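Feature request disguised as a bug report, sorry. It would help if multi-protein outputs had a clear separator. Right now it looks like this:
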Amino acid sequence: MKGFGRGLIVFLATGAYSGYFPFMPGTVGTVVGILFFIMFSLFSLPLYLLTTVAFIALAVWVSERAERIFAKKDASEIVIDEIAGFLVTMAVVPAGWKYVAAGFVLFRVFDIWKPYPANRINERMSGGAGVVLDDIVAGLYANLVLQVTRFI
């Protein structure tokens, strides 16, 4: 892949180049995820969910191609998966800053820890699905904690 197509894949995969941050690129990519959440939080719930599912599909497709460009499995520069995972974290969660901060911390903890089945996905799946799905699981775990704590 050459030219504009390659540049677009790199731009998307790296979260507008935030994945090139010299340390903790996944955390910086999650900050980009906050920006996406702020935009998506303006949508109705059905549109938020539909857009998030479409974003996850885009993330899988882009990550598949980005792995070939970076010639590395789940290259650290690829952070579109963190953006997708954070959108899952914040699904059906109020847009207040306390929830965003808690969601950020919880998502990063689960993304780094990779509790089952995220660890299995990370170990056994390859390609775009392998890059993205462990972050979706981390997002689901973080979302579950947020949902439980909302009502306590």
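(second protein starts here, but nothing in the output says so)
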Amino acid sequence: MRGSCLCGDIQFEVTGRPARFGFDHCSRCRKSSGSAFATWMICSAKDFRFTRGGESVKVFELPVHENPPGYGRAFCARCGGPVPLHRGDSVGIPAGTLDDDPGTRPRGHTFVELKAPWFEITDSLPQFARQAGG
């Protein structure tokens, strides 16, 4: 599957299936996305590559809140749009940056205890007070 930033300067592709795909309701994801939650697809770093503009990726790193690592937000230096973020052996992909149908759907909600008070979860996906295992 392929994806890109808002202006298209950064493009990427993913081979293989994602390890996780879900909605993150933590306060940092809400602030970063400007919405009730962020939708993340996590894949193996070996299945990911930037096909264009990888040098334009900038990262803003917040300090550790409770447990390492801190909170990183990757974005395009030109448009400021979100882009995938490398974290060791995995890559977090903001699902809204995908240009293709990933062929899978979100599997749950994490950090539900921190969700926005004005948002109600109405689907039947599993909900985790904190982070789902695995």
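Even a blank line would do. Unrelated, but nice: The mean pLDDT is 92.
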